[in-house]
User: Fold these one by one.
Assistant:
Number 1:
Amino acid sequence: MSQKKKINANNDDFDKYTRELQEQILEQIKKKYSETVIDHWQNPRNHRKIDTPDGYASVKGSCGDTMEMFIKMGNDKISECGFQTDGCGTTIVCGSIATTLAQDKTFIEALAGVSADVILKRVGGLPASDVHCAELAAETLRRALADYLCQKKTPWKKSYKRS
Ligand code: FES
């Protein structure tokens, strides 16, 4: 076999091995997590920074991971809600769910209606070891809403924040 054919055969073997490994990992994940979790893990919604947000928060969770949340208000509703995190896949899922739930809600509706319990219910539950990821997402949203309220009362503070 020529050197080129050997390299191509090795690449094909490696691709096959990688595909099989990915399928095995996905099968393991499916045993532990709901379809909603896998959907938001593979296609996170609102995973972005929003420039000049009306409300912003950065919160470090009990595990040491951080989540940031950005909200924009329009017509007394949350017109945009984005998040970023350096956390695990489940954190990304919870940020995705929290921002989706907050979208188009009034301040009060988001504050009262997007809790860790609601996020957990929406994702179809999480293993006990991942519950804190939902708590982190809910707490980050709550603080971003509090920041919005603070900025609304004292708009001059906004210009001193986040260069
Ligand atoms: S493991 Fe840290 S927030 Fe999910």
Note: The mean pLDDT is 92.
Number 2:
Amino acid sequence: MSDKIGPYEVTELLAAGGMAEIFVGKKTGPGGFEKPLVVKRIHKKLLGDREIEAMFVDEARVQALLDHPHIVQIYDFGEDRGSYFIAMEYISGATLRWVIDNANAVRRPVPVQHALRIAGDVLCGLHYAHERNDDDGQPLKLIHRDISPVNVLVARSGQAKVCDFGVAKSEIQRVMTRAGIVKGKFRYMSPEQINADPLDRRADVFAVGCVLWELLVGRRLFDHANEDDVVAAIRGGNYPDASDHRGGLPKTIDRILRRALHPNRDKRFKNAREFHLSIEETLRLLPASSNAVLVGEYVSAELDGTVAEYSSRTQKRPLPEREDFLASGFEMLDPPVPLAPTMIALPPSAGGDDVDSEPELRPPPTTMGRLIGASLMAPAALFSGLGVGVERLIGLATGKKRQPAVRVTRTRQ
Ligand SMILES: Nc1ncnc2c1ncn2[C@@H]1O[C@H](COP(=O)(O)OP(=O)(O)O)[C@@H](O)[C@H]1O
Ligand SMILES: [Mg+2]
């Protein structure tokens, strides 16, 4: 079935969040011309809500000013049958949410170097956005405010891209957030954001810290069941080091994360660039390298289920001679790649899929513990409401061949 939104043919609903529906579509033209794209429009149930409409216009106006390889590019903005829509580049790949959930489900942690590369991309895009001026040369003072794994897309071409400027704050926005209203996903929020204090770019730095910790460990940093406990942990800087959960992780990475996640923003990286450069330095010292080619191969292999082949082609470089940098056993980080599909037991039916009631994803710190933990995590991911996870895991559990290029169809934190 196909439908039209403005001049664009839409074929598939990709995601439906609280505010918007996202479709895969294309622009067609003479001579068989076709350009795939994504169309985002305000959810039908919100049609006529002036505030939501104005926020959507703000989202489009801000994103239109951003032209960067690590930010999803907007092509067009228009109105169709009383509803605004945004047309933007289609990212063929997966959300970071999928990358993390998949890594848990197949019991293969995201390789450290790729986790760092992805975080570096996000920071690169964010720093560009933070620094952007308007056309009169005035600083936009843009803050994304909603960095989380669902708002980062990893393309099969290997670049990570920031999307969803739906609650971004900037000098050109027309809808002002009422005092005391907090926007964003609170498990990725800095203390100042939770306190509804005036924000600056360091709130995004904090959120990237949360995302990188989660990418490395495989579970949310602030994962407490109780919201008060989340808030207390964020405000108190009370959280374990990533290396407590992933044995052999270089201590440098813990130090970087502590700096990004400092509850006092004056002690944090002062901007995304500083954080990014620290990551680049660390990457240079790792035994395995990462770049867009390798991230693209990694993500595509995970999506297509061809990891065994991918891994045999990946050469590791020798360890650098820096004892203080690399903890022993670093090579143990990536468990062996299974050549046969992993059997995953299907659990009994679990609870709801509220974005704030994520299942426990708590891998124990030892290698054996990690494996056991991962086997517990897989069913959790399965029942967390992620359509793709269900599709892929059922395929795995039944030993069916995995289907390529699955897409995340739900919006989660
Ligand atoms: N350009 C895109 N290419 C591919 N998938 C996208 C794109 N934009 C959004 N998506 C998918 O749609 C989801 C929701 O998009 P987003 O802009 O974050 O909407 P919302 O404001 O509802 O959160 C994303 O998490 C992702 O899965
Ligand atoms: Mg989103």
Note: Residues 112-131 form the longest helix (20 residues).
